[in-house]
Amino acid sequence: MPLTTRSATSVARMAAASSSRPSLARCLATVRDSPAKPEKPPTAVVMLNMGGPSTIPEVGDFLSRLFHDNDLIPLPAQSILAPFIARRRTPKIEEQYKEIGGGSPILKWTRAQGEAMCTLLDELNPGSAPHKPYVAFRYAQPLTETCLDEMKADGVTRAVAFTQYPQYSCSTTGSSLNELYRVAKKQGYGATGDVEWSAIDRWPADQGLVKAFAHNIRAALQAYPEARRKDVVLLFSAHSLPIEIVNRGDPYTPEVAATVYAIMQELGFSNPWRLTWQSKVGPKAWQGPQTAKAIEGLAKQGKKDICLVPVAFTSDHIETLFELDIEVKEDAEKLGVHLTRAESLNDSPIFARALADIVSKHLNDYDAGKIGAASAQLELRCPGCTSPKCARTKSWLARGGKEAEA
Ligand SMILES: C=CC1=C(C)c2cc3[nH]c(cc4nc(cc5[nH]c(cc1n2)c(C)c5CCC(=O)O)C(CCC(=O)O)=C4C)c(C)c3C=C
Ligand SMILES: [Fe+2]
Ligand SMILES: [Fe+2]
């Protein structure tokens, strides 16, 4: 059995620390003769998300992968059109990333959230410790390929696919799960029962998530003078979806509404509120009302104190830091609106605890046989979905990462 990194390091430390020991060679021989107890491979918590370009030179590849994704943007002749659209769009999007400091902070925040989550998980669930966070991004490094390589090198045999989108959409979490299945099959690791998979595919009204959002909203409201505070309009903003996806029965819209309602309940319905939708791309019809238009309308009604709450993403990204903080804010100021924004969940300790609690409960319920490997919601695909690809992925996950018998 080869020496693990940890046992080799301790041998070197042993040799250096004690001059009374015979020799490094004899010491190494002794360790080789009495096989080291194999280290337990970690329980993998695979954090699925879209990712973002960490640097400006990565913007082109990020957009190219995004426009190639048939689950997000189904295009005719996709392999020809996608690189063309991505190339045309790259200079504009590069400028936006330059304005927010030269890249997306998604990787930084995901890594920080994953580390905090797994430290807490080791305390909460010593039985499945050690827990290790892995990141599988859909459009930026670390991609699913990289994630599975790391898991294989660590000898992982038990993994939880944990979407970092609280609300499920076939175009986001669905796309990540399809990619996981595809890449695991291609790489010959993780798709044949060698890894036992289960999935946390949505958590829109999780109590910890709701408390973390409510905490940041209360903090934002504190910045208003007390006399004006209760009249501040809370404007929840989520990334929009094309109407044809909503009409296919995609669960995202109702799940976002569930998150918002649960937050308002936690706040005791302290303020007036609305849910609006941002970041429409292209000429087709998307779920409305649009956030920028809603601010215009509210301004006309004399509502001049508005606090934005991005509610469908758990860290800062281009749509909070550029679209809301720069573009929407400038327009709001011209209308005489005093616009603020609740901080994103980023390094919130309440949020890290929420992530750990979600995984801990999932592992316990799964081990106790109270839940299956995938939720009943995941297995029921959209009424309008006819994709055989989706059907295969979902049944593979429901079987804990094993193909159906032929
Ligand atoms: C829950 C969040 C998101 C949903 C739902 C979503 C759907 C969706 N997005 C596009 C097209 C684009 N999205 C782009 C960037 C982008 N999208 C989200 C989140 C959701 N998208 C985020 C967080 C980001 C930015 C990532 C970052 O860098 O920080 C882009 C690229 C930017 C641009 O060119 O404008 C596109 C394009 C569609 C078509 C869609 C639903 C089908
Ligand atoms: Fe998007
Ligand atoms: Fe679907």
TrEMBL record:
The keyword ATP-binding does not apply. Pathway: Porphyrin-containing compound metabolism; protoheme biosynthesis; protoheme from protoporphyrin-IX: step 1/1. It holds the Pfam family Ferrochelatase. InterPro entries: Ferrochelatase, Ferrochelatase_AS, Ferrochelatase_C, Ferrochelatase_N. It comes from the Eukaryota. Keywords: Heme biosynthesis, Iron, Lyase, Membrane, Mitochondrion, Mitochondrion inner membrane, Porphyrin biosynthesis. It catalyses: heme b + 2 H(+) = protoporphyrin IX + Fe(2+). Its EC number is 4.98.1.1. Belongs to the ferrochelatase family. Catalyzes the ferrous insertion into protoporphyrin IX. This is Ferrochelatase.
